């Protein structure tokens, strides 16, 4: 008898193995929880990995204060439903300086409210391992990142000096102050994520499903008017359009797509015929090729 | 729900059901630089329509900017993720790529062909079920082709696709294909592959990649994709013994104690007898627990939690096994080791070993020979450098369970980790267990100076720096210690000023106190040498007799006097601590060189001309002479 697990079963098992390995080898792991679909899958896998024990680490949400309102309410619902230990960190200095994407530009906003904030939180709680939902298929520089990705005391990633990673033998040795980012979803693709969400019936933020929402079109991107902080140009009037999101982040930096897909099968079907990758909806990657790699070296996930 | 929604739902349901059954094939591509690996993978992604429009736009733009195809699409750019690599125009690491067809999901490890990057190839091969070996039709088999094939076989890959690429550049000549195929098959006979499928392609033009090429009517197939989609890489799990390396003990409450892990081979059923082979404790599987409900049976690759009928003492690092077909349990084995770090392997040195889920202490007890990966010859060696492969005996500080790598890639593999830098320095595959009687014991009963020294891979000694205040002793001693440290030597630096703050706090600067000062420092350095350390002492130590006394505490050859000979004028001119000024002003009494004598060494082992030599050069000179003397 030769027998194979299906690809989703294999991916699931591999992710669970990574979760268990980190928990066994590190003293203070944390899971980055960004509320998006990858985080939803990550959370689901974490629950599976340790069952019947509860998830043996806290979740951390780095809140830039510009997330969609529905993301925050979904987060609260999850915490409630699964009895999660959630930490929320907002960069207090960024708040004091009133940093925001409109006043300071997307690059600075991301740097202060996301990258810096993340480092602050990791330092504050002295986490030595942080799970992230990044996938290698997302962007070229991620394709070479390790599953256990070493970070220096300053949270920097050195792509030239990565530890070789063989079989499923991960090297989890760090000195005080150093840490790793662990990526259980490394080998998943966007399609795998959707198929898995469907198969496992995993709850996700409703913004992923099409609905009539107020939007303005700006620089070729459809921006949702999530609250009154979005400064409207003289010629801009929000219009109601049937839209959904393929990826979720700060609402002023996240482009929607026009869609009528209100169910998972429809989303998957749209996805199969679609011709743009999900990162296109994110402003930060577009500055220049290689920009993601720079951000990663500086400690952005 | 609208009708269109319903149609979508049924269609997609059917689709999703069919997708559920898909399996996952991992493969690597290897070839020498410019054989066309990146183009090959880029082409597969392209032809299986995995490129999105925006990725395509970036690719087109980048092809124009830095491409090598004169503005045409350079598929290779898709693969080169890291900026630095793009600029150098070579692939320097392992990149993982994904594509899906209706039959299978694929994970491709793109591994570099550059000589110095064997380590990346080994990394990519470790998880692969199949290897695509690219050969440039114009060049035929190269040394690198043989090396890659050897590495692939070393990592246990049994299925090979030999892709003869750039057929367009040899007029699609069948004779060339036939010759390379024959050459390769003859060479590969020694490598124990199960199957070698040779396919003639042009990655650039897409010939025989997805569809059979009209340019090569003599080639009947299969195409690359057809082969990858259908090749059987399954294992007969029913014949494999059950192994579960325990990753994590699952204890939510006092009533539940489960052992979580991923099954490394075989199957397990509720009611099966299992054993932890090192301790011999046995029990029976009572439940196979998962989040999705208990299972009756589970197989290789599944991540599960087992509970047992008996309370037995099992923890992370143990392996639960079938009682009838047990793994080896030993604290020594023979293995092949691929060295992956710039710092060479040193037999006798301690490394952490991660084997399965256990992380323990180990050392290379015997390096038998290294393998020339180009000729497969065995060569005598004392060390392994980056990218070298050696056959060695490894001794662990306790017995663990393992299988030969040929039987089990999970329980037969390991990595070595440097204790100090935490770098992964090597990867290895186990050949067989060694019995205790065949070998020396791990722990020697009588730990003495030589044992402590050799454990640190050095000869313990004292470097006694003497010279005037401001001569540069401490600066040089510091640099020497840093250099030794990077060489992974174990050192300790006793500095005059620092010792006077602690151990010798009660001493002043009278002659008697100076003697006592040196006596204590001499005794301390004797203890440090006994502990196996290279001890650096940086003291003015002005009197010959006290230096002699310190020397007499040690064995011949262990005491090296380093005279930092800097003229008083220069020291006084430097006057870094402002002490000469104070001494001249009479504020400090008994200051060496001013109103207290400095007796120049007559037979110092090493003399540094402090007026001429920079501190850096002096340090290098000292380290060099330690090497010459065989102390490090
Ligand atoms: N004519 C021809 N050129 C090819 C073919 N495959 C690759 N090349 C070219 O060979 C060069 C090296 O290819 P690349 O994919 O970068 O090689 P790598 O170093 O192995 O990744 C590039 O200029 C490719 O366009 C082929 O089938 N035919």
Short structural summary:
The complex is a heterodimer of chains A (301) and B (632). Chain A has 301 residues and is an alpha/beta fold. Chain A has helices at 7-25, 37-50, 69-82, 92-96, 101-104, 106-125, 190-200, 264-273, 291-298, and strands at residues 29-32, 59-62, 86-89, 129-131, 148-151, 179-182, 211-218, 221-224, 239-244, 257-258.
Could you name the key traits of this structure?
heterodimer; A: 301 residues; alpha/beta; four-stranded antiparallel sheet; 9 helices; 14% strand; B: 632 residues; seven-stranded antiparallel sheet; six-stranded mixed sheet; 28% strand; elongated; binds guanosine-5'-diphosphate
Overview of the structural elements:
In chain A, a hairpin with a 2-residue loop joins β7 and β8. Chain A is of the alpha/beta class and 301 residues long. Chain A starts with 6 loop residues before the first helix and ends with a helix. Chain B starts with a helix and ends with a helix. About 1% of the residues of chain B have low confidence. In chain B, the strands form five sheets. A seven-stranded antiparallel beta sheet of chain B has the order 7-15-11-12-14-9-8, with no helix packed on it. Chains A and B meet through α1, α2, α7 and α8 of A and α1, α3, α4, β2 and β3 of B. Bound molecules: guanosine-5'-diphosphate (GDP). Guanosine-5'-diphosphate binds next to α2 of chain B.
From the N-terminal CA to the C-terminal CA of chain B, the straight-line distance is 79 Å
Report strand order across the widest sheet of chain B.
7-15-11-12-14-9-8
- Rounded to an integer in angstroms, the radius of gyration calculated over CA atoms of chain A is 19 Å
Shape of chain A: globular
- The gyration radius over C-alpha positions of chain B equals 33 Å
Q: Determine the mean pLDDT of chain B.
A: 87
**pLDDT averaged over residues of chain A:** 89
| Helical run tally of chain A | 9
Q: What is the molecular shape of chain B?
A: elongated
DSSP helix count of chain B?
Answer: 16
Please report the two chains with the greatest interface, counting residues with C-beta closer than 8 angstroms to the partner's C-beta: A-B, 75 and 88 residues
Oligomer: heterodimer
Bound molecules: guanosine-5'-diphosphate
Strand content of chain B: 25-35%
Uncertain residue ranges of chain A = 282-290
The end-to-end distance of chain A, rounded to whole angstroms, is 43 Å
- Range of helix content of chain A: 25-40%
What class would the helix/strand composition of chain A place it in? alpha/beta
């Amino acid at each position: 008898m030769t027998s194979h697990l299906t690809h989703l079963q294999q991916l699931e098992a591999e992710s669970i193995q990574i979760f268990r390995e980190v928990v066994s080898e590190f003293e203070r792991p944390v899971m980055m929880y960004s509320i998006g679909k990858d985080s939803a899958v990550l959370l689901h896998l974490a629950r599976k990995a340790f069952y019947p024990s509860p998830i043996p680490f806290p979740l951390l949400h780095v809140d830039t204060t510009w997330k969609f309102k529905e993301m925050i309410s979904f987060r609260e619902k999850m915490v409630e439903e699964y009895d999660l230990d959630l930490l929320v960190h907002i960069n207090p200095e960024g708040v004091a300086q009133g940093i925001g994407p409109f006043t300071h530009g997307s690059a600075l906003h991301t740097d202060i409210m996301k990258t810096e904030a993340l480092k602050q939180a990791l330092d504050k709680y002295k986490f030595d391992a942080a799970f992230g939902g990044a996938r290698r298929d997302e962007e070229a520089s991620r394709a070479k990142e390790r599953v256990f990705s070493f970070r220096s005391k300053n949270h920097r990633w050195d792509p030239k000096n990565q530890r070789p990673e063989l079989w499923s033998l991960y090297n989890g040795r760090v000195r005080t102050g150093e840490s790793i980012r662990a990526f259980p979803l490394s080998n998943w693709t966007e399609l795998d994520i959707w198929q898995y969400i469907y198969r496992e019936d995993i709850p996700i933020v409703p913004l992923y499903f099409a609905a009539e929402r107020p939007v303005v079109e700006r620089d070729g991107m459809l921006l949702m008017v999530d609250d009154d902080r979005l400064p409207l140009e003289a010629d801009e009037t929000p219009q109601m359009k049937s839209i959904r999101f393929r990826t979720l982040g700060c609402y002023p930096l996240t482009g929607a797509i026009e869609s009528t897909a209100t169910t998972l099968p429809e989303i998957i079907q749209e996805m199969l015929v679609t011709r743009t990758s999900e990162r296109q909806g994110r402003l930060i990657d577009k500055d220049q090729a290689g920009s993601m790699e720079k951000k990663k070296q500086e400690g952005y996930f | 729900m609208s009708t269109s929604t319903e149609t979508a739902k049924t269609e997609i349901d059917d689709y999703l059901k069919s997708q559920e059954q898909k399996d996952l094939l991992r493969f690597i591509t290897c070839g020498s630089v410019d054989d066309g690996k990146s183009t090959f993978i880029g082409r597969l992604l392209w032809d299986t329509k995995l490129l999105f429009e925006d990725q395509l736009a970036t690719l087109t733009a980048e092809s124009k900017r830095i491409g090598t195809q004169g503005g045409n699409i350079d598929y290779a750019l898709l693969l080169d993720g890291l900026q630095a690599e793009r600029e150098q125009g070579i692939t320097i690491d392992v990149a993982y790529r994904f594509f899906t067809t209706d039959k299978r999901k694929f994970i491709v490890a793109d591994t570099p062909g550059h000589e110095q990057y064997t380590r990346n190839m080994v990394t990519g091969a470790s998880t692969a079920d199949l290897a695509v070996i690219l050969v440039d039709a114009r060049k035929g088999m190269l040394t690198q082709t043989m090396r890659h094939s050897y590495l692939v076989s070393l990592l246990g890959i049994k299925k090979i696709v030999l892709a003869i690429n750039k057929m367009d550049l040899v007029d699609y000549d069948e004779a060339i294909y036939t010759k390379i195929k024959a050459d390769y098959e003859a060479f590969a006979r020694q490598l124990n592959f199960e199957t070698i499928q040779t396919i003639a392609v042009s990655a650039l033009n897409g010939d025989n990649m997805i569809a059979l090429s009209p340019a090569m009517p003599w080639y009947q197939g299969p195409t690359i994709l057809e082969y990858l989609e259908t090749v059987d890489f399954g294992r007969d799990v029913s014949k494999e013994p059950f192994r579960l390396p325990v990753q994590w003990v699952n204890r939510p409450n006092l009533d539940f104690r489960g052992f979580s892990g991923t099954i490394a081979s075989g199957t397990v059923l509720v009611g099966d007898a299992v054993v932890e082979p090192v301790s011999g404790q046995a029990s029976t599987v009572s439940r196979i627990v998962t989040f999705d409900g208990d299972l009756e049976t589970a197989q290789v690759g599944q991540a599960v939690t087992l509970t047992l009928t008996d309370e037995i003492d099992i923890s992370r690092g143990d392996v639960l096994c079938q009682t009838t077909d047990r793994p080896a349990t030993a604290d020594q084995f023979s293995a092949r080791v691929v060295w992956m770090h710039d710092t060479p392997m040193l037999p006798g040195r301690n490394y952490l070993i991660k084997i399965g889920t256990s992380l323990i202490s180990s050392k290379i007890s015997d390096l038998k020979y290294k393998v020339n990966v180009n000729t497969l010859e065995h060569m005598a060696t004392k060390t392994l450098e980056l990218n070298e492969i050696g056959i060695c005996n490894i001794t662990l500080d306790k017995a663990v369970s393992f299988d030969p790598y040929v039987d089990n890639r999970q329980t037969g593999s390991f990595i070595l980790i440097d204790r100090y830098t935490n770098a992964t320095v090597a990867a290895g595959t186990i050949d067989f267990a060694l019995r205790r009687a065949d070998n020396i014991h791990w722990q020697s009963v009588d730990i003495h100076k030589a044992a402590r020294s050799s454990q640190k891979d050095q000869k313990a000694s004292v470097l006694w720096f003497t010279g005037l205040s401001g001569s540069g002793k401490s600066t040089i001693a510091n640099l020497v210690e840093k250099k030794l440290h990077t060489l992974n030597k174990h050192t300790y630096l006793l500095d005059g000023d620092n010792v006077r703050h602690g151990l010798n706090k009660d001493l002043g600067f009278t002659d008697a106190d100076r003697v006592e000062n040196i006596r204590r420092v001499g005794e301390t350095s004797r203890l440090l040498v006994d502990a196996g350390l290279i001890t650096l002492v940086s003291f003015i130590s002005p009197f010959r007799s006290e230096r002699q006394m310190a020397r007499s505490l040690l064995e011949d050859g262990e005491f090296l006097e380093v005279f930092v000979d800097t003229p008083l004028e220069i020291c006084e001119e430097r006057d870094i601590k402002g002490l000469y000024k104070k001494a001249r002003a009479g504020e400090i009494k008994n200051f060496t060189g001013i109103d207290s004598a400095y007796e120049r060494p007559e037979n110092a082992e090493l003399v540094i001309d402090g007026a001429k030599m920079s501190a850096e050069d002096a340090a290098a000179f000292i380290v060099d002479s330690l090497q010459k003397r065989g102390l490090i």
